[in-house]
Specification:
Blueprint lengths: L1 E4 L6 H10 L13 H6 L1 H6 L4 E6 L2 E9 L2 H19 L10 H10 L6 H4 L4 E7 L8 H15 L4 E7 L3 H10 L2 E5 L3 E7 L2
Parallel strand pairs: 4-5
Antiparallel strand pairs: 1-2, 2-3, 3-4, 5-7, 6-7
Organism: Phytoactinopolyspora alkaliphila
InterPro entries: Acyl_CoA_acyltransferase (IPR016181), Glycosyl_Hydrolase_84 (IPR051822), GNAT_dom (IPR000182)
GO molecular function: acyltransferase activity, transferring groups other than amino-acyl groups
Length: 196
Amino acid sequence: MDVRPYRRGDDDDAMYEICLKTGPGGEDAFTDRRLLGELFVGPYIRFDPEFAFVVEDDDGVSGYIIAALNTRLFEQRCEEEWWPPLRQRYPLHSFPEESNETRFVRMIHQPPVAADEIVVEYPSHLHIDLLPRTQGKGYGGVLMNLLLDALRDAGSPGVHLGVGAGNTNAIGFYHHVGFTTLSTSATGRAMGMKIR
């Protein structure tokens, strides 16, 4: 397997597919194959492509890590440039109320905003997704180290992420690489790591 920086255009579709396949319920839980990627991949590779890295094997890209250097600036740019066309493409009530898509369409119209008390110390944030064929082989740690070095070189003092309460494997991985729990809720937790 090869771990390398993201290549604009070449890797986009594969990253969207990985986001879908590793999303809640997997790819069979969604009729729209682009929606999750539009939320959790697209704005990162558009606004902060220098903080995107992928794992590639003989079958193609099989995992990625992406980040926003400055969460507040990222949120602002999404509001100005990314969400408006998506709100046109995905109006509220685009999907049946009981569908998985409905929850994520609502997020396009009312995007979550990171808590002030987190971004003051951990202004960057990240997402990492690996297909099963890449998991458990150390590539998550390699991707994380590449990203942390890039964020450190760019001057970030800390990075945070969100993880679902039931995702015990991911929580264990994040603890293993040095993240600590910053806050918890019934549905998940925020975790952070100081970079310098």
